[in-house]
Each structure stands twice: as structure tokens, then as C-alpha cells.
């Protein structure tokens, strides 16, 4: 596919302490942010305190930028404020220096559409900026002069402004999360099981979400819960999903809401993960988590990503976690078995599927049904009143009804069904209300 020549041109650079630097992910990230990658430059050496790279390597990077007429340098490492300044001084005038986490924040900013997503992006940006503001304030005080390395006068109140804004955003996000939790509980009370998709970006979560719904003939024009979305984009790019997308699926007579969440990426610092805690709460508070893994990736990469996901998920999550090996259509059966064995400690019983072709989706649905909380069986005897059929209709909407029978004299209705414990309790309460309002029953 031809790359869009209107994109901002960039050179990508990466340093590693040892071994060979891998640049495929940072190139994908750059393209996801809208950059046109002209060249990649790597270096294996210990970090230089002043330039991050060796000074000679920075001069080589500058030459590559001139050669390609690039306007941005993207560095696949975290740069300190002094390193960013020093590297910038070596580059042609006007060339921006963007480190890995600033690039990720750019992508998040482009994808943020909801109020919650926008607040989380702003929180992450402020967390990124805070240590840089503190460094500038410290330098200004030390030198007893305004400004930071000749960058102009620095407002010493900036550090306090950032901290105040962080506090206000946290308060607003906490309120949003309380509202989200209330909606989740309403969904459970309405008989829905909550399933969350987690995993690394580009593992195929959005495609799997669409497959689970489409494979089960979900009508996008039907009456939906007000929080349900009819779209779940499926594209071969990073961070297609920044917020959450929820769709309804009926799995073995159960009403299930499946939520796709923001994808993990490697080497995320704690402050960035913490900024998106509200989004991750959709995972932490689910009844079941499907951890989606790209089985076409090398074993070492799969192992590393599984370990990172487990560190993130098991810290706060209490629901069962089922590992889903996706993209089985891209590997041989022998390779799948080899990889299952290699990562068995982290994924002891994975479900192997292809969200793209639909292979083994039925097995995944069976597994989802097995892992979700057990339904309870109930048999209610309802007096026949003018409100009885509305209660029977409610039970149909919120439970799996096996039989509805009527007494020969027409005075009672017998309903046998299976449902979540909360639905059982509510149905009993409704039945009791019918009895209390009809003393002759």
C-alpha cells in the first residue's frame, strides 16, 4: 500500500543497552499518529546522560533528517527534558523532538472522542509534563534567573497549575466512574453478564467483538440498551479503540454485553497506565475477561506480552480470565501447538480462534458460557391479576424461560426459568407484590 505523501515526514531512532533494537512497533505507532516514516536509526550502547544517544549518533541522525527533509525526530525511548533540549540543538531549526510517550499521547489525543477519554488523555499529558515543569522550576531557582536553557521566561506557577488541574481531573473522572459503575450494576440487574476484551493493541479485539455479535445475528437496528454502541471498528492500525465499545451477544441463551477496551502496548510507564484507570475499570469489574493474544507473533513476544497483561490484570481483577489465541488462520497447526506449550504457564488452557474467519468462535462461546457465573433455577407460582402478564414478560426479557403453564381454573400461572441470582431475587419480589396486591390469591 502506498504511504500518504502528505503526512509529516519523520526519522525514527531507538537506543538499546544491548542486543539489536526492534523498530517495527515504533514505526507502526508513528504511522498510527499520521507520520510518514522516512528512515530508522538504531544504536546499541549505554545511555548518555546528555544526549541519550552518543553525541556522534545524534549528529548522524541530524544528517538523516537533512537528507530526508524530515520535520520531526521520533525517539523510541523516554527522554528527559535536558536530553530533549540537547538533541534539539543538534538538529536543523524547527525540527521537533518527540519521545515514545509523547507520541503515544498524540495518538490518544487523536482518538479521544468521549468526555472520559479526553479527560484521561489530558491527565496523561499533565502527568508527562509535571516532572518537566519541576525540572524547569528547579533549574530556574538554581540559576537565579528566569527561563530554561534559553527557552524564554518560565512561569514558576506552571508546576502548581499542573498539580491543581490533575486534582480536578481526578475528581471528575471519579464521578464518571461512579456513574459507569451504577450503569454496570443496572445491566447486571437487567440480567446481563459483562464480558471484557483485554490485550495488546492489534491483537484483534475489535474484530473479535464484531465477530461475536455478527456471528450471533445481532440486529444493529434493534432496540438496544442506551449505552450500547453499534460500531466496533476493525482496522489494521494501533489504538483504533481508545475508549470502550460495547455490543450485545446472546451466548447459549444468556444475555451478554461484550466490551472492547483500549489495547495495551509495551513498556508503558505506571503514570500512563494509571491515567487510563477509568477505562480499565471496565475490565476489572467484568464477570469474565477474554485476554486476546496474537498467536502469529514470535514466542518470546507472546510470553512478554502475556506476562505484562497478567501483571496489569491480576493486580485488581477478580473475574476469571480466559486467554484467546487469535489469528490462528495465519499460522500452522504445528506452530500453534508449539506456542501453546511454550506459554502454558501463563495461558494454561487457551481457546484458539480466528476472529477474521470465524474459526472456533463456537468453542469460544461455549467457554464463555462455562466461565460466567452459574444461573440459578426458579419456579414461581403467580396469581392471575391484571399485572401478572407484565411480570411474565419481564421474566422473559431478563431470564431464560423454560416453561409457562396456566392452572386449569385460570387463577394461577406457573413460570419455570433460569437466571442470574439478582434476577431470581427481583422476580421473587415481583411475585410477592402480585400476591400482596391480590389478597384473594
Description:
The longest helix has 32 residues, at 158-189. With 441 residues, the protein is α/β, with parallel strands linked by helices. The protein has four domains: 8-108, Rossmann fold (3-Layer(aba) Sandwich), CATH 3.40.50.11060; 112-177; 191-371, 3-Layer(aba) Sandwich (Rossmann fold); 376-436, Alpha-Beta Plaits (2-Layer Sandwich). The strands form three sheets. The chain has a six-stranded mixed beta sheet, with helices on both faces. It has helices at residues 24-32, 55-68, 81-90, 100-111, 115-143, 158-189, 205-214, 270-275, 277-284, 299-313, 333-342, 361-371, 388-398, 421-436; strands at 8-16, 35-44, 72-75, 96-99, 192-199, 245-251, 254-260, 288-294, 321-326, 351-352, 376-383, 400-406, 412-419. The chain starts with 7 loop residues before the first strand and ends in a 5-residue tail after the last helix.
Task: Write a compact overview of the structure shown.
It is built from 14 helices and 13 strands. It is an alpha/beta fold and 441 residues long.
Descriptive labels:
14 helices; Rossmann fold; 4 domains; 441 residues; alpha/beta; 13 strands
> Would you list the SSEs in sequence order as H and E?
EHEHEHEHHHEHEEHHEHEHEHEHEEH
Give the low-pLDDT segments: 147-153, 215-241
Per CATH, the superfamily of the largest domain is P-loop containing nucleotide triphosphate hydrolases
Name the average pLDDT. Answer: 81
At the first level of CATH, what is the class of the largest domain? Alpha Beta
| CATH architectural category of the largest domain | 3-Layer(aba) Sandwich
Strand content: 15-25%
Number of helices: 14
Distance between the termini: 73 Å
Helix/strand structural class: alpha/beta
Q: What is the strand arrangement across the widest sheet?
A: 6-7-5-8-9-10
Query: Gyration radius, to the nearest Å?
Result: 27 Å
CATH topology tier name of the largest domain: Rossmann fold
Count of extended strands: 13
Largest sheet: 6 strands, mixed
* Count of discrete domains: 4
The shape, in one word, is elongated
